[in-house]
Amino acid sequence: MVKAYLGLDVGSVSTNLVLIDEAGNLKDKIYLRTKGQPILAIQTGLKEFYQKWGKAVSILGAGTTGSARQLASILIGADVVKNEITAHAVAASSLIKGVRTVIEIGGQDSKLIILRDGVVVDFSMNTVCAAGTGSFLDQQAGRLGLPIEEFGALALKAKSPVRIAGRCTVFAESDMIHKQQAGYSLEEIIAGLSEALVRNFLSNLGRGKEILAPIVFQGGVAANSGIKEAFKKALNTEMIIPKYYNVMGAIGMAILAKEEAERGKRTAFKGFEGVNKCFFQTGFECQDCPNNCEIIQIIEGENIVAHWGDRCGKWSAKKNKIARETGA
Hints:
five-stranded mixed sheet; alpha/beta; Nucleotidyltransferase, domain 5; about 325 residues
């Protein structure tokens, strides 16, 4: 039987699950689209693991991160719950020795993490503007009639990238249309967009930060070779992309769960079959600020056990209190 640790990263775009063994080696990973249904995504991922591993694996610890980390914790019985900054920093520093900067760009947010001697000393995170995130790149690829997988390769073919206004998704899209009408090639426009998104990242998240090599680039957008090349050009240094770049948050949580177990904590993991409990969700629109977030309420029986979907953390911050009150 394989003794393993489970890590979950449940975000608004993707839900990632990993298993690592006692030596810290990755045994398995699952990448799923959340599709606005975090409960279903978590249950689907755990069922896939159970179908593949069955009783051949024993979970000694479990950890959760991501915007729905508290929800995931309630569902699976997590031993450790951390924010994305901690999870990504732990994974990067564990897998890439000596890393001093982590750039993480996911589906709907981006992060810059500064480490010194394995410790996070500074960070910045963008959860409001979509410019430079995976969802924006997907949108532009679709508008241009291109598979997102070809986006980066086309950018590398450009001899002279055209300058695109990348401060805002609306301006970027408008400028791309203008450049197309002006007769610039698709390669030049895509390369220009890649450079614009990198400028936006560095001016917003990198302002005042000491960005030093080695630099690890992770998250789904790390697969885009055009963005990677634009970062290399802007920072004048190589970008290290980990083998498991798109599930690094989950890996970080599995590592933290392993450390927790090694301190003697008995796992609270409910088991793979425990995800079949009856949860359902309702929603409402929060009107406390202009974001007008769609808040999802997770209900078990008669109890609201979690909230999910807010950008500011007002509602999701209530999860700890709810979990204590309900004994979850």
